[in-house]
Amino acid sequence: xxxxxxxxxxxxxxxxxxxxxxxxxxxxxxxxxxxxxxxxxxxxxxxxxxxxxxxxxxxxxxxxxxxxxxxxxxxxxxxxxxxxxxxxxxxxxxxxxxxxxxxxxxxxxxxxxxxxxxxxxxxxxxxxxxxxxxxxxxxxxxxxxxxxxxxxxxxxxxxxxxxxxxxxxxxxxxxxxxxxxxxxxxxxxxxxxxxxxxxxxxxxxxxxxxxxxxxxxxxxxxxxxxx
Length: 227
Hints:
Layout: E1 3-10, H1 16-25, E2 27-34, E3 37-51, E4 54-69, E5 72-89, E6 92-97, H2 101-116, E7 122-124, H3 129-137, E8 145-149, E9 159-162, H4 170-176, E10 180-187, E11 194-198, E12 202-205, H5 211-222
Antiparallel strand pairs: 1-6, 1-7, 1-12, 2-3, 3-4, 4-5, 5-6, 8-9, 8-10, 10-11, 11-12
């Protein structure tokens, strides 16, 4: 199973005990009508646990989607649960939401409002282009995909390469003279996992592993890259 997550930066460093209390108190109930049926939707934090410099939990939220059944629109409620972690690294606080990008962004905004009472306290965590380049070139023996952005060629916004051992090709070096690395898929020398990483800290693991291993990987190899 492919695992995905996105790392965010918390603009202020919070005491973990205070952060845990705010997360425990978070619960929002809203009522909505879908296809003339009434639903109560709940968003809350579940399974909160604390360790040394780490706070883990699950963001649970309800939604209603509509399916077609024998010509009728039938609303169906569903509960999603997205694991998350807060990590302290070099006196800075990071939030990782283990979901695909768009849903991770929405959950990060909800957590920002719940804990810090406003949007903008949980922001995107950026990896500098040169840092991503150095990380890639330390692991590029088995590079599979490379995307470049900020391309200076007229009418071209992005460049990409697909194949095996791309980091050793002349095209890889040539494209670097025209743009910056945005997304790479590499095999980590340290962990042995095949992962995709973007400069805005979206991480996708294509190797078969469990969520705790994925959490350890992001904590050990991705968070240290973030500016």
